Predict the structure of Actin-related protein 5.
Amino acid sequence: MSELLFECYNIPQVSYGIDAMFSLYANHDRMEDINSLIVSCGYQTTHLLPVLGGRLDASQCRRINLGGYHLETFMQRLLQLKYPGHFAAVSLNRAEELVRDHCHLAPDYNADLHEWVSNDYYDDNVHKIQLPYTNAPGNQLSAEQTKERREQQIKRLKEVTAKRRLEKLASEEQKLQELMSIQELLEDEDDDEAFDRALQNTSFDTPEELQSEINRLTIAIQRNRAKVLGIELPPAEEPKKQTVYDLLEIPDDQLSADQVLTKKKQRMLKNAREGRLRAQALQIEKRQKVFHYSSVQRSDATGRC
């Protein structure tokens, strides 16, 4: 700063000091007779400076953490509480302007407050402030611009949805590959232990649960791939109705020739269906026994270790 003052502005001489002391010296001719207390109000703090015989008594100086900023904040809060409808309009900058241009420091606060009781004094000294009025910004877009903006938003939303669908499709395909690799171990009759170890690392307890999850993922992947490619899915097939064998309990003498033939066909279908169900049940029971036996062997080995 000194370099700028001397070389740029050609100031002949500079003196640094306390601004409050300069003010005191400027308002008194005989410095040796000055005995006063300076109250220096700043933006963040207020300093009390005692002056004895024209000299500052530095040991008795005090600092109060209260300044103009706190007065402006207090003014802002009072106005916002009094006029809640103009909460946003009463900003800190506007409160600072009100304090600076429309307020004064009362030498005697009680006496000044008593004067405001008079209606005549109130009418002569009250200040009315009009807040700036601004029209709310309206929609200046034309119908074509609004339509174009809406189409852009729809296009952007479709792109985000397609990206998420691709990420989900890749995740499901990876999971399906892992489950199918575990299922391939089941098809290998010589590697049952590897299948059991791989199955234990998953959240499935039986091979049937694994197969059910593979079927679910396969259907979900087909649907998601069709959505990505924009292909309409075929309508879902209706569940097959359960076969009814309603003629088996009726004696042959109460049936016609056609009904007797239908009854024989129903008996053959029922026997075949029951045979398939028994075979599936035996296969599932065998797999569960093998899986349970392997689990018991591993637990015994762990206990011995």
In short: Residues 257-304 form the longest helix (48 residues). The beta strands are 35-41, 46-52, 55-56, 62-64. The chain is about 60% helix and 5% strand.
